Amino acid sequence: MAISRLFSSSLKRLSTSPPRAPQPPVFRRTMASRVTINCDMGEGFAKWKLGPDAELMPLIDLANVACGFHAGDPLTILSSTRLAFASNVAIGAHPGLDDIRGFGRRKFDVSEEEVYAGALYQIGAVKAVVEAEGGVLGHVKPHGALYFILRDSPALLRAFLKAQLALSPPPPNQPIPFVGLAGTAHESVCKELGIPFIPELFVDIDYDAEGRLLSVGESRKPTEEGIREKVERVLREKETLDINNKPLKLPFLEGGFTICLHSDMPTALDNVRATRKAVDEFSRQ
Length: 285
What we know:
Blueprint: H1 3-12, E1 35-41, H2 53-56, E2 62-66, H3 74-86, E3 90-94, H4 112-132, E4 139-140, H5 144-152, H6 154-166, E5 178-180, H7 185-193, E6 197-202, H8 224-237, E7 239-241, E8 247-249, E9 257-262, H9 268-283
Parallel strand pairs: 1-2, 1-9, 2-3, 3-4, 5-6, 6-9
Antiparallel strand pairs: 7-8
Helix pairs in contact: 3-4, 4-6, 5-6, 6-7, 8-9
């Protein structure tokens, strides 16, 4: 299924019931819905705020909302949901490992049952808030170390996706889409289980020379200029740059995809603005 259909079918289910005013289509700034921008959001906790969410939200198309394990809490999930609705942004759940001190970026062993239960708990929490506010959960994207663990372990990924399927609407509706890395278990196991898959490109963290995504800790510090160069190259040449600034071909760039950015980075607002500007300028050509 084309990515534009995946996104549009999710967005059609978002409610704009009163008192919310009707909003323009979420793809108003993208190139025929082929490229969208997603951002990890709602990653504060209690009185601790992280990231300029209010400034970022109008610039993105999909918000990945933290679910309470690596960051987030009930009030933050609720405020993030309302903020996304106000900007007509599709909402996804962003579950992580139960590691709030390490911000979900430290790897440790987990069992299939732990992954399944954690996914049910976290996705279910965001889904409940979104639905209570009159919307529908549009996608799921794992966070940090969990994202890489699921990439490298099909068994753990199946446990995670079992929970995602359990929380999806019943047939004939499509399951909640999964956002992840093309050409990895993320994509193949989703296909195996009949879950719509949305490939994503990272521009504020690096890939190695073989096209393998590196963690935040392994990547260079992003700059506004570097991100803009990457995005422009992706849109023009269908290739990105690896950690050594060498051209890197990623086959999924020939089709539809979403560009991921992180709200917790010090330059997050500049990074997202640079990406938004590059996508908008290309779409006007």
